[in-house]
Each structure stands twice: as C-alpha cells, then as structure tokens.
Amino acid sequence: MASKAALDKVRKEIFGNIPVRNMRTGNQVLRKPDVGPYLAKYYMESMDKSARKAWQTFGYMPPYTTELQERRLLKNEKLRMKGKGAPKKGAGKRATKGK
Prior knowledge:
mainly alpha, 6 helices, 56% helix, elongated, Small ribosomal subunit protein mS33
C-alpha cells in the first residue's frame, strides 16, 4: 500500500501541483455544467435590432421606434410640460453658472 506522501508526490508529477487538504478548491462548482447558453436561449432577442438591421441593408431607415422608446419620449414630454424635464444641450447648471 502506498503512503499518502508517495501518492501526493506522484500526483504532483502528473498534475503539477499538490492539492491543499484543508481548503476549498471549487472543483464541485467547476464540474457543474454551464447554464449560460440555456439562460440566453430563454429570453427571445428583441425584434427592433433585427428590424433595424434589415432596413439598413436596403439603405433606408424608416421612422421606426420601439414601445420602450415611445414610452420614454412620452414621459420626457410630460416632464417638460411640467417644467421638470432635462435642460437643452449646453443650457445646464454648469453652463449657466457664473465664473
């Protein structure tokens, strides 16, 4: 029967290192299969990217907006009507501050 020291020596020659006995190595986590591709397949790619690519191949970009863009534009418009919207470009706090 081989001793633990002899086995460790052979392991070191084969694998290049001796495993630390009283430390977690993370092998259990690394042996699990990767779930990234399955999660990526679960969520469908948004249509606006593929639609924009299709229109760009023809060299024409229609006035195409997604629901998310429309919602954002409506929200910004409502805020501007209340006087709480973002300032025009170059008219912010730093630009109006006196030197």
